[in-house]
Amino acid sequence: ATAALRFPPFLSSRAAPKTTAAACTRRTASATLRVAALPESAPVSAPASTSEERPEFSPPAGFAPPVPKRFAVKDGQLASVAGAALALPFRLGTGLFVLGYSVSLVSADKIPSDQYSLEFLGLKVKETSKIDQCRRPEKPIEIYEFEGCPFCRKVREMVSVLDLDVLFYPCPQKGPTFRPKVLEMGGKKQFPYMVDPNTGVAMYESDAIIKYLADTYGDGTVPIMLSLGLFTTITAGLAMIWRVWKGSSYTVSKLPPQPIEIWAYEGSPFCKIAREALVELELPHLLHSCARGSPKRQEIFKKHGLFQAPYIEDPNTGVKMFESAEIVEYLRMATWGYI
């Protein structure tokens, strides 16, 4: 089970970063200033004005999560899904499968009915991987990035390959909260920027981050499509060409007390559409990677009797839901409180 995460008090509103002497003093105490989620048990002092800085978050009156429909595209969404799916041929499916993924067909009685698996011609698909042989981080890795950046996409693909849980802090253009924090922490407004609370490592540069993740939480190997230098960056950019402005610019919103949790993976066009909205609204989110071969698919299957991505759980409102188009609508509902 994932421990609940909360933000430090100084992130309870979209206030511009201060440059006072007190703020400079706090900079020396990285545990206080660093933009990191705090365990629910950690003491969090309330801001001076809770009515203005800590708004109430609740779903709209009468809101009901949609019934999940596998492989269905909502009316009017076909162009968006098709544009997001262009990444698959350009990136040759990188991010669709976890490390060491393999598949075989077995008779239906070989896999219990309460275990997630695909069915094909009366047989079941048995999926295995090397993930259970890799070190797992105790705390979520923190990454500051935005959806429309090819360098950021490269790192997200590696996150999917390694089946990592990552606390993403979106940094869209003109975003008031996390872009300034990256400058404060690392000295450069450059993305992606990674902080690993498990090792104390913090770094820029997508290729360096990918190699670090491979060495620390994988078997040391980097997938071929992430190791081709300039070609990797060009194809990562081409993968987003039809949605290049999506997930890049800030839309005014309110910062919720806790990050939204999302089960998703980089190779899915449906997941991309949901994450674009999270980034544009600058909503921090704890991503549970669940590419093919991920054991986290079984977690969702056990809860709901099916697996489908994206899937979100919002600890601020209690809403749990599937369906990418409806997730985007939910996040953008002005009457709800995020915008």
UniProtKB/TrEMBL annotation:
Start and end residues of each stretch annotated as Disordered: 42-62
Taxon lineage: Eukaryota, Viridiplantae, Streptophyta, Embryophyta, Tracheophyta
PANTHER family: GST N-TERMINAL DOMAIN-CONTAINING PROTEIN, THIOREDOXIN FAMILY PROTEIN
Sorted UniProt keywords: Membrane, Transmembrane, Transmembrane helix
Pfam families linked to this entry: GST_N_3
Keyword Transmembrane helix: yes
Protein name: GST N-terminal domain-containing protein
Sequence intervals crossing the membrane: 224-245
Domain GST N-terminal, chain residue ranges per copy: 139-221
An annotated GO cellular component: chloroplast
Gene3D superfamilies: Glutaredoxin
Source species of the chain: Aegilops tauschii subsp. strangulata (Goatgrass)
